[in-house]
Amino acid sequence: MQRVTWEDVARARERIAPHANRTPVLTSSGIDRACGARVQFKCENLQKTGSFKFRGALNAVAALSPEERARGVCAHSSGNHAQALALAASIHGIPAYLVMPEDASIIKRQATAAYGGQISLCLPTHKGRAEAARRIAADTGATPIGAHNDPQVIAGQGTALAEMIDDVGDLDLVLVPVGGGGLLAGTLIAAARWAPRARVIGCEPAGADDAYRSLQEGRRITEFTPRTIADGLRTPLGENPFAILRDLVDRIVLVSESEIVDALRLVWERMKILIEPSSAVAVAPLLGGQLDVVGRRVGVILSGGNVDLSGCLSGLDTRARRADAERRGTG
Q1: Per-residue H/E/C for 63-86
Q2: pTM of the model
């Protein structure tokens, strides 16, 4: 366990300030009425690369020594960390070697390549990803930067809550999605300093509940088969995040797949912003009755907005072509 402190988060804020977006905090009167709370949404879906991951990746790259940076960086990721590390590396003018599973979203693969990442595909298992990343690190000499376990990544993720507290003041509850645990761990460290009264709640799909079970059993569970549409939360809980969660998190709540979809639809329809299923996992407990939020000030970190819209757009394209053909036929 490598200790991460609030001072690390403060330094991360200084490092990333020239390049990261200070994302807005939005509200919705309709969602407030639906859950009886006053909810503040930190919109990391509007962060560069479309997720909070850019904060941690940028901080980790900036914290490297010049010699380490010169060798490039590498990681394995299903998409959001890959995009973030590719852009962070590009900003510093260094190569980024990214291992992505074969079943990764084509949209995320294309975006990673567009940011300059050099992509290698691997088997869609955590073991396959980790082994491929180790081989590339050995072959290239690149510095590995993990999506969840790296202390500088964790510190960078904590900057989202630090900004939020600056903007909205005290909160009673903070809801954060948890997969590998980097965002939740960073949020816990930031909250202990800047929002000490707030209860920080991890939100996890019931179909990928390794963080919940790890805390219940007192040991980190790494072997499991995730079954969730929240693809960003399918990664096992990291070693450093597990230690931080064990000491600081209030609790983990689980949400079903149908609750994730309901929350996703609500945000899309009421707030008119695009979030991905992983973000909706932190919205779902507001609506499902898992938490008593009535009358409370609640902060929700919307972790990302990288959604593959090809199916929806394909349907619209078909309808548009049909309408054009009908118009020409009657013109």
Answers
A1: HCCHHHHHCCEEEECCCHHHHHHH
A2: 0.92
